[in-house]
Amino acid sequence: MGSLRGQLLPPVLAIAFAALLCTITLLISGANPGSALAAMVGQVGEGTTAVDIVNSASVYYLAALAVAIGFQMNLFNIGVEGQYRLAAVVAAVVGGAVALPTGVHAAFIIVVAALVGAAYAAIPAILKVTRNVHEVISTIMLNAIAAGIIAFMIRDDMFGVLRGNNISTAEIASSGWVPGVPLGGYGTLFGLAFLAVAVGIGYWVLMNRTRFGFELRAAGESPTAATAGGVNAKRMILVSMLLSGGVAGLVAMPELLGRDHTYLMTSPAGYGFTGIAIALLGRNHPAGIAFGALLWAFLDKSAVALDNVGVPKEIVTIMQGSIVLSVVVAYAVVRRFELRAEQRRVGQKLGGAEPAAATAGGAS
Amino acid sequence: MRRMRGVVLAVIALTGAMSLVACAKDAGRRGSVGGQAAACKLADKPELIPGLIATTTATGERIDGSHLRVGLAFDVGGRGDESFNDAAAAGIDRAKEELGITDVREVTASHQESEDVKQSRLRQLAQDGFNPIIAVGFSYADSLEAVAPEFPNVRFALVDATVEGAPNVTPLLFSEEQGSFLVGVAAAYKSRNCHVGFVGGVETPLIQKFEAGFLQGAKAAAPDIRVDVKYLTSAGDFSGFNDPEKATHSTRGLLDRGADVIYQAAGGSGKGVFAAVDDADGAMAIGVDSDQYKQKNLAAYRDVIITSMLKRVDVGVVDFLRAVAKNDLSAMPDVLNLKENGVDYATSGGKLDDIEDVLEAYKSQIIAGNIEVRDRPGA
Amino acid sequence: MTTPTPTGTDAGADPGGGATAVVLSGITKRFPGVVANDNVCLTVRRGEVHALCGENGAGKSTLMKTLYGMQQPDEGTIEINGEQVHFRSPADAIAAGIGMVHQHFMLADNLTVLENVVLGAESAHGIGGRARRRVAELARQTGFDLAPDLLVERLGVADRQRVEILKVLYRGARIVILDEPTAVLVPQEVEDLFASVRAMREQGYTFLFISHKLDEVRAIADSITVIRRGTTVGTADPATVTNRQLAEMMVGTELPSPQTRESVVTDRAVLELRGLTLRAEGDGRELLHDLDLTVRAGEILGIAGVEGNGQTELVETIMGIRRASAGRILLSGKDITRVGTLARREAGIGYVPEDRHRYGLLLTQPLWWNRILGYQTRRPTARRGWLDRAGARQDTERIVRDFDVRTPGIEVAAAALSGGNQQKLIVGRELSGDPVLLIASHPTRGVDVGAQALIWEQIKDARAAGLAVLLISADLDELLGLSDTIKVMLRGRLVAEADPKTVTPEELGAAMTGAAGDRDAKKDGAADHQEPGEGGDR
Question: Pfam family example for this protein (chain A) (predicted)?
Fold first, then answer.
């Protein structure tokens, strides 16, 4: 797992670098970085922003966990986007069509969403295992197909309902809602934010404490070593992809069951891609991802505050992009540095010249 | 390996030749656009009902709005999108001039932002003391439903949607189908093949209103006319409003099938429609929202733009601000129709001069209620 | 740093022996935390074969990389032909007449011999007739009988090496560094190589010969420099020095021996192969042909063979990584032909893979996490689907202690350990949990002498306790020393059986290349010639 320093240093460096980059950009564009920062920080205390940040972060968190499960197996599940959106629409349609007792109704919708996400992720998984189709290619295609299916499903001659100039699915009865935690003037916390936390804990336990997690991570790091260690790498691809898709299916649930109660034509897309960025930012670690999700949500909300003080809000996009980019670079640099340091420690322990040549040369 | 290369070369050469042939064929067909089919057999022109058409909205009455602090929340694209955000911006600019408004804050939505961001945007404007606040675009409907009750003393206006149960939200709705009806008539009169086309950006109910009106108008003027319809993307995928490339390809498809007047309601993709029309001999295009003949970045295509369907968001905005300044919203119409100059057709370029009497006649019939324009295609 | 050894006893001396080709004085190269070369002195006379000896990790490669311009020394000077030089890159070294033949060949399979030689040095003699004439001339000089238009992919290992040597000569090298050139060759091929080297020495070429195989060094070298722990510990005259003396200079202690003690072979069969056949996916080529083999408890069965003759496939089929096409695999009488790798491991097979980085370790993970690999279902590392982290840590501590894994702790990443310590960890792991069978593929490849001795010791101990061992190795000393029985593998078949007590390396080599011509290697050991390209189908 590396040292704590090795875990924390890269994101801190990356954020500092991104902030510097944005400061320069702001100065060039003639805006005042100080007032921009003040607006960004100040917004957190205003109105419902703090709660909004946590709400959005819970959604991002689920998306990033879905991506991270794939990453652990060295799978690049770009398809989280299509999986969560398809799951959201199907869950909204099914949830709006059935009548069940309070609680059961919501649980039913959540299960449907997870199953739809997993089923949709099964397609690239099976293609990969049987035909060796690269998951990046297949999931990109499946994202496009999902967009088509969604457009078809919400047509008003299918499951859609016209709402003025908008289209939505039928509204889910209140028995299927998941009530939030009202915090007065600060807004309402999504009830399913706790689901996100639970999934995060479950993810950590699975990856670090169970045989399954061990096999998954082993197969992700070195399929050859895992195979020699008795891990069925193909099965791991299938299972991790299904799990990833299942979690992806939950992504839209906090908003669907906690606020919208219907899937709108204008419901936001793109959480899957945000999830990729946050999973990279958080290095697949549940706590890191949580931090990344909160940071991302904070930056997202900053757009409004910056717009209000006349600072170009595109600066937020620049910041998000440069953070991800520099995190990736910083991790590579720090990892190399850490390995060097560790080899040095081993070398000191041995008190001789022996390891440098051997490790620098690799296998012989 | 060498033989492989030879095969590749041959293939390239062949496809090259084929595309040359294809080009030649295309050119031939496009060249004969006028001669291939006959122009439409036109229906009888309706009678002009006089006195219904207001020539100007200016009331002359001087109203002072300098005390107003106006918040304007744009949809994605914001000021400068050359579509309906710009129309709203034009309204604000005119309001500044006519009503003396000075304090305006403009904020803009981001691509694919979530609901709470929209709410925060509106809430922040209200908290910072802006009143009235104008939200541009129906995607603000749910946000206003949540935010407006929190600020009962703030007057909101919402372009393109209504909010149930919020008395302080004034909807600014436009009968796009009525304006589209008129350009449909114009298309039918101008088509030499009796075949016209419609390119929509995204297949949403809003854009379908444009389609429906155009269809009905064209059929009213020429019952035998063929109208081809193409949408760039389906509902939920909003990239169709910003994909000129795709628009060009789709438009070419319509042109190749013989359509020679193309009406576009495709937002930022519209430029691609004009480009394709400009390429084809003898084809014409109809713009949307603003008077696109006059737009600078479309100047290259000016020759093919025969008219535009005007959706006067600016009129709506100015009317709303005027009403707020007078503190009397009762005069605001439910929907801005042809009658209120909420929609119209553009005459810049003079390409419709020969049929203006026809269009005015249809216009008067619609205003009089003799022609009812549908807002759903095929309904 | 504890290296007060006297250095370079005759460095720069001996002017009577002719001009010097290479003089390295006081070369020091530091890497973070370690000194790879410390005040190294080396003098090579023109026209001699100078051997550089030292165990793995002693700093030979670092020194040669310095001489070849791949890295710059922190201290010290390099003189070539009496002139001091500074190499910033291998290009500088090549310009100064130095060439290096790497242990791992760098040839383009789909090009011809001529094209490979000329590739990258087109400016020397063009690519046309002049280049062809030059290559032919060099081939004549060196006695390399290579068809210039043959595709390299059709060449055997020994011929590939010749192409590599031609490459450096073509670039004008007069001083040739040969980095472990015999590691990939069978004994007869080694003799051929040495003949060529001697012939070229007569024509004035100078050789720097890197090796840790003492017999070879004494056979070919005119003088020997020994390097230990990054510094030169002295020079020796091959005519007078003994293997033992050389080895002790290298190791600084007494030499380990792979010799197995008394036989403890029982009659209880642990691993039985019955007609085991494996066909390649796709073209159906037979990789393993109808193998019958029995390994008994307490027995070490060695498989000899030139690499690429099916040893890897055999191991992977026994481990269940590949599926047998026909035949059966029995473990202690139970048929395991159809069960997966994990079940085989659980049934008591330990596996030391040939490539520890790819098959043995999770390099970025800590040592204790690596302990779990292959044991993720068993105590002490797991309990009913849950990992037992404490148990894994504890047991890793045990391995580190018992197998002398030199590490600051069990939390360091496996990649940070040296090769020998990584291998000790793997052997320690695979001998955990009382296995009945150990598959050891090149168990001491690329590890230092100390680790080698320990690994041999542990394998012997386990054998004495009744473990059956299937040993695959390219190191004939190791095979002969450890094995109770040796089988020779050639093109996917077991072609000969040998008694390690009586067979000589030469006889074994003949059988490995198929030159023996019959199934008994002992009868016809004096094979003198073998076909190029017999190195199996890679």
Answer: BPD_transp_2
Q: Which residue has the tokens 């960890």?
A: C425
**Pick from C101, C102, C90, C98: nearest CA to C44:** C98
Which tokens hold the place of C432?
Answer: 């955990």
> Looking at the partner chain, which of B117, B124, B236 has a beta carbon nearest the beta carbon of A154?
B236
Partnered with residue A163 across adjacent β-strands are: A166
pLDDT at A255 > cutoff 70: yes
Picking from A242, A278, A215, the residue whose alpha carbon sits closest to that of residue A116 is: A242
The two tokens of residue A114 are: 């997870």
Question: What pLDDT sits at residue B216?
Answer: 94
Q: Report strand pairing: C231-236 vs C382-383.
A: unpaired
Low-confidence ranges of chain B (pLDDT < 70): 1-38, 53-61, 379
Stated as kind and residue range, the H or E segment containing C468 is strand C468-472
- Whether A243 and A337 share a structural domain: no
Rounded CA-CA distance C532/C513 in Å is 10
Decide if C351 and A228 are in contact by the 8 Å CB cutoff. yes
Nearest by CB: A211 against C353, C386, C415? C386
CB of B124 less than 8 A from some CB of A: yes
Do residues C50 and C222 lie in contact, with contact meaning Cβ atoms separated by under 8 Å?
Answer: yes
Among A55, A155, A165, select the one facing B116 at the smallest CB separation: A55
From residue C340, alpha-carbon distances to A51, A212, A215, A229 in Å are: 51, 17, 15, 11
What pLDDT, on the 0 to 100 scale, is given for residue A3? 60
Instruction: Compute φ and ψ for B341, nearest 5 degrees.
Output: 65, 20
For an interface test with B, the pick among A304, A308, A313, A317 (most B C-beta atoms closer than 10 Å) comes out as A304
Q: Are residues A177 and A229 in the same domain?
A: yes
d(CA C218, CA C198): 13
Interface test with chain C among A235, A346, A350, by most C beta carbons within 10 Å: A346
User: In this complex, do B235 and A265 lie within 8 Å of one another by their Cβ atoms?
Assistant: yes
Distance from the Cα of A205 to chain C's closest Cα (Å) equals: 10
Residue A186 with chain B: CB contacts under 8 Å:
none
Distance in angstroms (rounded) separating the CA atoms of residues C357 and C364: 11
B123/A301 Cα distance (integer angstroms): 13
Give helix C243-251 / helix C449-464 axis angle, nearest 10°: 110
Q: What class has domain B69-174? A: alpha beta
Question: Do chains B and A touch, with touching meaning 3 or more CB–CB pairs less than 8 Å apart?
Answer: yes
Give C400's Cβ-side CA count (13 Å radius). 20
Report the CATH architecture of C269-360+436-513.
3-Layer(aba) Sandwich (3.40)
| B148-183 pLDDT tens trace | 999 999 999 999 888 888 889 999 999 999 999 999
Of 3.40.50.300, 3.40.50.970, 3.40.50.2300, 3.30.300.30, which CATH number belongs to B176-311+349-368? 3.40.50.2300
Mean pLDDT of chain A: 86
CB B183 within 8 A of CB B345: yes
Within 10 Å of residue A41's Cβ, how many Cβ atoms?
Answer: 12
Residue A45 lies in a domain: no
Chains B and C touch each other (3 or more Cβ pairs < 8 A): no
Residues C318-349 as b/e (b if ≥16 CB within 10 A, e otherwise) read bbbbbebbebebbbbeeebbeebbbebbbebb
Range of the domain at A272: 56-311
Q: What is the CATH number of the domain that holds A224?
A: 1.10.3470
Same domain, A275 and A322: no
Q: Do C2 and A351 touch (CB under 8 A)?
A: yes
Residue B365 neighbours by CB under 8 Å, 6+ apart: B46, B47, B49, B371
Report the predicted TM-score, pTM, of the whole model to 2 decimal places: 0.76
